[in-house]
Design a protein that fits this description.
Layout: E1 2-13, E2 16-28, E3 33-37, H1 44-51, E4 59-64, E5 67-68, H2 74-81, E6 84-88, H3 99-109, H4 114-127, H5 143-155, E7 161-165, H6 173-190, E8 193-198, H7 201-207, E9 210-215, E10 218-224, H8 225-230, H9 235-241, E11 255-264, H10 268-278, E12 283-292, E13 295-304, H11 308-319, E14 324-329
Parallel strand pairs: 3-8, 3-9, 6-7, 7-8
Antiparallel strand pairs: 1-2, 1-4, 4-5, 9-10, 11-13, 11-14, 12-13
This protein binds adenosine-5'-triphosphate (ATP).
Adenosine-5'-triphosphate binds near residues 11, 13, 40, 42 and 199.
Length: about 325
């Protein structure tokens, strides 16, 4: 289990101290595929570097299997770090070495005898489904194949944790999917905990079991992917789940309601309180709202669940709000 406790990281800059991570708390259980999602500059890379202690947190703890990483000697830390492997957006392969030798590299450093390393590397080539690329050079591979070799190299040290830092951001959607399938397969087959750092909610949706939403160095919300996707509780979560103000269809919609905002506060608290106060999940099917001086104007189409009592409860809750009107739409065709 990885526990990140009250972790903060500041950097001195010409303008003063910059807080890149602010009191981050996360618990990642063994076997999770844990997504850490946030926009550019949210602090994702800094958090990854703190998790594997490439960067020393300013305060707080990184506790792995009950052991406080920051309390370890340099030597012990180097040893423990071998159980955390990493793959990157740009693959970081050694271009002058063949694929086999790239995979052998971490084993060479760890002093594994040459023949044993070669045998293991060939097995790993099989695992990543590129058994015929042992003697190829990285330049002869596609982006997806390079990432497969990088994954094989990451597995060479028999890690307990695989950190994926924007590992599919340079790949097209089909290749992305195949790499994500491979990562998922590795998680299941080898029992490796995976931490996925990404700015793409689609990646989280595709493979993660849990997710933390990071914004301005703070964890805004955490939960199972299902929880956060069906009912993001914070504005940061909603911005990621509904980037255009419209949701992906998450459940079959049986009742559709048009909600018109006439200058009340913002629309977002209404959606959140529908879930929290009424326990009703809604889909935002479409929205055309404007915030003028912090007041919401415009309209939104909400999909309500099948259960008629739930839908009626949601409708009367919406109608009880100030500066909001709501009507059922009977001719919605999606
Ligand atoms: N060494 C440093 N000195 C000063 N500021 C830094 C340093 N490293 C990172 N930062 C700042 O910390 C913030 C978080 O950076 P980080 O690279 O962790 O974000 P990110 O979420 O990974 O973004 P991206 O997806 O664009 O890589 C940024 O505002 C960045 O400018």
């Amino acid at each position: 289990m990885i526990e990140i406790k009250r972790l903060s990281k500041t950097f001195p800059t010409a303008e003063g101290t910059f807080t890149a991570l602010d009191d981050v708390n996360l618990t990642i259980s063994d076997g999770d595929i844990y997504g850490i999602v946030g926009m550019s500059g949210a602090g994702k890379s800094t958090l990854v570097r703190c998790i594997n202690l490439l960067e020393r947190p300013t305060s707080g703890q990184v506790v792995i299997d009950g052991e406080d990483m920051m309390a370890l000697s340099t030597r012990a830390l180097r040893e423990r770090r071998r159980s955390i492997s990493m793959i990157f957006q740009q693959f970081n392969l050694l271009m002058q070495r063949t694929c086999l030798k790239n995979i052998c590299f971490p084993m060479e450093i760890a002093g594994v005898p040459k023949e044993a390393a070669r045998k293991r590397a060939l097995e790993l080539l099989d695992i990543v489904d590129l058994p015929d690329k042992a003697d190829s050079y990285p330049a002869q591979l596609s982006g997806g194949q390079k990432q497969r070799i990088a994954i094989a190299r990451a597995l060479a040290s028999d890690p307990k944790v695989l950190l994926c830092d924007e590992a599919t951001s340079a790949l097209d959607p089909t290749t992305t999917r195949s790499i994500l399938r491979l990562v998922q397969d590795i998680n299941k087959r080898l029992g490796i905990t995976v931490i996925v750092i990404t700015h793409e909610m689609t990646v989280v949706e595709e493979i993660c079991s849990h997710v933390a939403v990071l914004e301005h160095g703070r964890v805004m919300e955490t939960g199972t992917v299902e929880e956060v996707f069906s009912n993001p509780k914070t504005e940061a979560g909603r911005r990621l789940v509904y980037p255009d103000g419209a949701a992906i269809d998450q459940f079959p919609v049986h009742h559709v309601v048009r909600v018109v905002f006439n200058g009340g506060s913002s629309y977002e608290p209404l959606i959140a309180s529908l879930a929290i106060d009424c326990g009703v999940r809604v889909n935002i099917l479409g929205a055309d709202t404007r915030n003028i001086d912090g007041k919401a104007f415009g309209s939104m189409l909400l999909g309500l669940p099948e259960d008629s009592a739930e839908a009626a409860r949601a409708l009367s809750y919406i109608r009880a709000q100030r500066d909001v009107t709501a009507e059922e739409v009977h001719d919605y065709h999606g």
